[in-house]
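Section 3.1: Structural characterization of target chains.
Under the original work plan, the team committed to producing a structural model for every single-chain target entering the pipeline before any wet-lab resources were allocated. The record below documents one such target. The sequence was received from the expression subgroup and is listed exactly as submitted; it comprises 287 residues.
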Amino acid sequence: MKHFKHPVIYTILSIVLFISASAFTFMAVDFNPNKARYAFFKNYFTDYIPTYYTAEDIKTYFPDTTKVITFSDNDSNEKYFVRKWFGIPPSYIIVEYFIERKDENDYYYIQSEEFEKRFTETYGVPLEGKSIKMATGETFYFFNPKAVKAVFDKLYAKPSTKFENITYQTLYNIALKKYFRDVVKLMSYLHTTEKQEWTQVTTRFLTRAKISKEFNIYEESDYARNKLFPTEKSRKQFPNFSEEIYSGYLGPILRRHCDGTLPVMLNCLKTILKDYDPEALKLVKGF
């Protein structure tokens, strides 16, 4: 079942959501991670200001125009600035920059035995953890919590790391700080305000996967969203993360809870906050 066997959009985005957003940590296998990060930052976090942008547009997407990025290969007259992060990058971008493939069109390479072998050789532990047989006859593949920690420990970059003439700290402050603080608030909300509902939803998710032949991940994600965010106000309380909480955001979080990798990711999250945004540690509640 592709929803559970190393799918690009759920495998990578789950890690991006809780680690990469400000730790800049990716599952890089057999290539130079610094080169990959550089390419990703340049293409996703920086841009010039289009001439048709209004003053309000500039304020929204380019909150600090005092930091001009001096790309050595910029042969145009355009000035480049850090662009504010809105949402999670599309999966094809993650694959393009961070997964080395023999065939650049093979987006399912991450599901292959070869990828698993290279991952294990690179990080010392397998990416795949235990699995359970689902009532539907398919397999629910889990990720290995030790693998998440191994990736983080090996690739985590400190705030003083340079990106051209600015530091990662500067990039974080401009592009990610508000976004990432809302991620923290979201996780605190699930572990405090909605703790009882969160426990019920996650228990239901795994139980139904085991016993229900009607189990459908999209329906379960919809159920979780309606249970945890029953009102419009509750769904729109994290505007710097997303204008509204959609069910698609909850599927990866539910699965990371079920396979035991979520606590590891949350510990990584606290490491990030300690280094990049100590004040935001006050927002951490329940985890």
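Residues 115 and 151 are 14 Å apart (CA to CA).
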